[in-house]
Write a structure and sequence with these properties.
single chain; about 260 residues; alpha/beta; 5-stranded mixed beta sheet; 8 helices; 10 strands; binds adenosine-5'-diphosphate
Length: about 260
């Protein structure tokens, strides 16, 4: 028996294939791009070829993410909130709070001790506090996204980035750079600005242990900025970007067993 979990996000499409015993046979991440339907097909194809099986060998598929309703081969669709909670609980069972920051949205989910969802808050209206904010800054400062966090960690005097809007913050960054503020200090200011936005979202939902998922959990500079602003430590699972797809695969396996 093979099950597939796919998470079609605004920025990346992720897939996890699991066998009957719950072993992960394949996981992969591709950019969603403009042609979402193509990414939906490619991410399944790639996962199947890594697992050494055919798409027709998949017995059950759960889709999640903003594009979940467009997946033609899914048997069921489940919200990202549920999938991130399930995926995270399977790898860090003690976590009580999940901060998920993706390409164009951010969420904070509160979990019970058995991993069930107590409540959640979400920002999908404003680019500040999401990956989009760092992606824009990475592009204008010509620093690859994989390196922005390391730049921030090398800062000695983080710049004050006060604009809450991505467009105004972009002008602020350009003006700071023109007055000689170092890329390291500007990057640290950008990371602290995102961390403050996330603190606003976290509000009262800050019960430790706090874990982080989503693409931005790979950014060590952001983890450090969040730990500073939230005044707590943050646990990051292995492969934080595929946690939603992992949760979808876990749910697919359970449903398959029930049938
Ligand atoms: P979504 O599910 O909303 O499509 P993801 O959770 O896949 O988004 O996160 C995508 C974001 O993760 C990108 O916008 C980028 O900012 C960030 N990202 C991706 N890879 C890395 C990396 N290696 N280091 C730091 N940030 C990364």
């Amino acid at each position: 028996m093979f099950v597939l979990g796919v998470d079609i996000g605004s920025t990346t499409a992720k897939a996890v294939i699991m066998d009957e015993e719950g072993r992960i046979l394949a996981k992969n991440i591709i950019p969603t791009g403009v042609w979402v339907d193509k990414a939906i097909e490619t991410v399944r194809q790639k996962a199947c070829s890594i697992a050494g099986i055919l798409p027709s060998d998949i017995d059950y598929c759960v889709s999640t993410g903003y594009g979940r309703l467009r997946v033609p081969y899914m048997d069921a669709q489940v919200t990202e909130i549920t999938c991130h909670a399930r995926g995270l609980h399977s790898v860090i069972p003690e976590a009580k709070t999940v901060i998920d920051i993706g390409g164009q949205d951010s969420k904070v989910i509160s979990l019970d001790k058995d991993g069930s969802i107590l409540n959640f808050v979400m920002n999908d209206q404003c680019a500040a506090g999401t990956g989009r904010f760092i992606d824009v800054m990475s592009r204008i400062m010509d620093i690859p996204i994989e390196e922005v966090g390391d730049f921030a960690l090398r800062a000695d005097e983080p710049a004050a980035i006060s604009s809450v809007c991505t467009v105004f913050a972009e002008s602020e960054v350009i003006s700071k750079a023109s007055t000689g503020v170092s890329a390291e200090n500007i990057m640290a200011g950008i990371h602290l600005s995102i961390a403050r936005r996330i603190r606003g979202l976290v509000g009262q939902h800050n019960v430790p242990p706090i874990a982080m998922t989503g693409g931005l959990a790979q950014n060590k500079g952001l983890i450090a900025a969040l730990e500073q602003i939230l005044n707590c430590s943050i646990v990051v699972p292995e492969d934080p970007q595929i946690i939603g797809a992992l949760g979808a695969a876990i749910i697919a396996r359970e449903r398959m067993m029930e049938e």
